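FAQ: What does a multi-protein file look like?

Like this. Sequence, then tokens, then the next protein.
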Amino acid sequence: MPNPLTQEELEALLSGFDPMRPRRASEQRRFRRFDCALECAFEVDGRWHAGAVSSIGIGGVFLKTALGVPLGARLTLKLYLTSPGSQIRPKGEVIYVEPGGLGVRFEALSPDEIWRLIHDFHLSEEAI
């Protein structure tokens, strides 16, 4: 059975919550993150690179890559979702760097991208 959004997450989405606003380290995540294994591509400085996403949420992803991308870099992601032929292409900003990957905060997701992300993830959870 899928894990639906909590009431707080749903209210935040519907109230126009801005997941891109900078937060202090002491603040907790506004949205849940889910472990996943998604292939992706990402563009930095006009060049595309292969990567993988190991956790995802409405606010962003953890991008597994060995490429040295600086903190604050802007990039375009191409996330290949699990539904056949489904992908989203959000833009994001690198908000933390650690060995093996990057924390990327989405700059904006369209309502369609949010729906596809939630729908696709629920389908993935049901398959587990």
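And here is the next protein:
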Amino acid sequence: MTVAKLAGWITSAAVGLPAHDRMTFAVVFATRHVVLGSAVAVTLLGCVDYAAFGVVYFVTEVPLLLALVALHRRRQPRSDRAPYAEPTQ
């Protein structure tokens, strides 16, 4: 998981994305491949055991990602954050 996030970060840096987009790219890069592999294992190969892996992965990944997002938002200056927009009707 960490290696995949690091690979996503390096890839996004090589492409030239800004720092706030790099974090998003790294998280999506890591998560997408695990989910895709689990889906293929369960649906095409019939390995239902991988469904349990998906649940454990989800329960582990969500708190880590939320902590990463909180840390990233805390380190980001207030002026760089998107302003809150009132919903239009």
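Q: Is there any per-entry metadata?
A: Some entries carry free-text notes. For the entry above: The longest helix spans residues 49-75.
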